[in-house]
Amino acid sequence: MPATVALKYRLAMINLLDFDPTALGAFFAERGEKPFRARQTLRWIHRRLADRVDAMSDLARASREALARDAEIRAPSVVRDSSASDGTRKWLLDVGGANAIETVYIPEDDRGTLCISSQAGCALDCAFCSTGKQGFSRNLSVAEIIGQLWLANRTLLAEGVTAPWVEHGRHPITNVVMMGMGEPLANFDNVVAALQLMLDDNAYGLSRRRVTLSTSGLVPAIDRLREQCPVALAVSLHAPDDALRDTLVPINRKYPLAELLAACLRYIERAPRDFVTFEYVMLDGVNDAPEQARALAARVRDVPCKFNLIPFNPFPNTEFRTSSRTRIHAFQKILQDAGLVATVRKTRGEDIDAACGQLAGQVQDKTKRRVHRLHAAVTS
Ligand code: SAH
Ligand code: SF4
Fold first, then answer.
1. pLDDT value, residue 155
2. Which of 129, 229, 305, 356 is catalytic?
3. Whose CA is nearest to atom 7 of ligand 1?
């Protein structure tokens, strides 16, 4: 087949990974198929991790052949696969158009966590984030988001991963954190569709408590998530007051702290956990002073929460430095003395740049942010 014909043929194929459970039901109904066919297909793709329609052996032959003619199962392809000394693994995945995203697998004693990306780049430009500095290209499709989970489970199972929590035939990924590249709530519909698949018993069957979405604080979208698909919520706070948060997390200028904390309170009414996790990146001399810890504790007094202090992970050309251990522990102690639960996040996968905020992938920036920066650097 000539390349152009092959390309056209490929583009015309429906990617079954793009359907959430409801959409797959509608797709089958449209084809005059019974609802249980959709459930069967969902199980083949997401439970048994089939990569071909032909493999779905208990689907009636006629349905299977018809489906194989115009649908396929297509996850992003792996460009690079890196393993860190602590067992953390990072996959660089090609999503077309010279964009690549990153997915990180973090094995722990009792669980396997996958950190999933939601966008190629990020438009929100937080000062301390490597993804933000890359600029923004586009939202990921449902297939590209859920494809990360599908691919990680498939790869690890094919390799015969052995871990204490992996029972025979069970998926090695037991927990998902939407903390990779991008702001998940800025890609709301596709992220929620992917979350529905993660939670569905015919797909990954994860409990809502084992799926955490991290946001920099898009208030209206937090409320929509509460209505449509409440999973565990982590909010990137990073500062005790608006003046500092405006500079570190620019979206704060649109949704300041008072509005954000009120949204957290509303969210908790529906959340699978009775608290929100606040992430707080520890930046030396910027947001890590004892008086800032006290101000922070006072600020969140009314919100049931736990703090996760994240030592800043450096990346090239950043002006920030990581707070010292002593300073992080002093900060933690002040929060704890104020009656708050505060833990320090263990940095994982540092030697392969897989730690929080280090994911850069490859992004064809549409915001021209990098060009502006370069220009500013040259003219200053
Ligand atoms: N966009 C979402 C989720 C992705 S970032 C959000 O901002 O919440 C996941 C977490 O890593 C966030 O708390 C983010 O603030 C933090 N982070 C970003 N850059 C970091 C860095 N260089 N070092 C440590 N944490 C970082
Ligand atoms: Fe985007 Fe989150 Fe990075 Fe901010 S911290 S730039 S919201 S990915």
1. 96
2. 356
3. 216
* pLDDT at res. 361: 74
Whole-number pLDDT of residue 10:
54
The predicted structure's pLDDT at residue 238: 98
Ligand 2 center from residue 58 Cα (angstroms): 44
pLDDT at 162: 80
Residue 130 CA: distances (Å) to CA of 6, 285, 332, 358:
37, 19, 25, 5
Pick the ligand that lies closest to the CA of residue 215: 1
Q: Nearest C-alpha to atom 20 of ligand 1 is from which residue?
A: 357
Question: Which of the residues in the chain have pLDDT under 70?
Answer: 1-11, 168, 356-357, 368-380
> Which pTM does this prediction carry?
0.93
For residue 30, indicate whether it is catalytic.
no
Assess contact for 180 and 159: CB atoms under 8 A: no
Cα–Cα distance for residue pair 71/129, rounded to 1 Å:
38
Q: Which residues line ligand 2 (CB under 6 A)?
A: 122, 124-126, 129, 131-132, 182-183, 216, 236
> What DSSP string describes 237-259?
---SSHHHHHHHSGGGGTS-HHH
| Contact assessment for residue 288 and residue 323, using Cβ atoms and an 8 Å cutoff | yes
Q: What is the model's pLDDT at position 9?
A: 52
Out of 33, 102, 183, 279, which one is annotated catalytic?
Answer: 102
